[in-house]
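testing teh design pipeline on a random one, pls ignore if ur not involved
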């Protein structure tokens, strides 16, 4: 679960971004991230966004 960061949902497109309060991404490694970039995570997008 991550909070107060950006979700870049289209690899290579810095305009394809949303800012959410909380989101959960299943199927990726649990590591420290400042922002979530789906293009760098094998195209896996968040499963839950609030």
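output:
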């Amino acid at each position: 679960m991550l909070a107060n960061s950006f979700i870049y949902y289209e690899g290579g497109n810095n305009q394809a971004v949303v800012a959410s309060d909380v989101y959960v991404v299943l199927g990726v490694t649990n590591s420290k991230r400042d922002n979530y970039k789906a293009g760098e995570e094998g195209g896996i997008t968040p499963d839950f966004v609030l």
